[in-house]
Amino acid sequence: MANPELGVKRRCLACQAAFYDLKRDPIVCVKCGTVFQVIPLPRSPPRRAPVNMARGESFVPAVAAEAETDDDATAGAEPLLDDEEDEKQDDAAAAV
Fold this sequence. Notes:
By secondary structure, this protein is α+β, with helices and mostly antiparallel strands. Helices cover 26% and strands 10% of the residues. The protein has three helices and four strands; from the N terminus they run ββββααα. The strands form two sheets. The protein has a two-stranded antiparallel ribbon.
């Protein structure tokens, strides 16, 4: 186990020598004298869990699912008919 007094273990980008930074600023390679510049790596946003379609899970948001089951929204609406049923009703209305 590394001694925490030594700082962080680094690797020189110029000569590939491994060394501890000894908590110094600026960090200098002990072998070649190159100044080590810490470059923060950009972080990508966390990934979402994949949707498992085999288990029947859907990608429908919960808000949309609640709107479909809301009785007040569908109380005054006429039910949707198939094309054949619609034609039968039109024929029956024309015959009267």
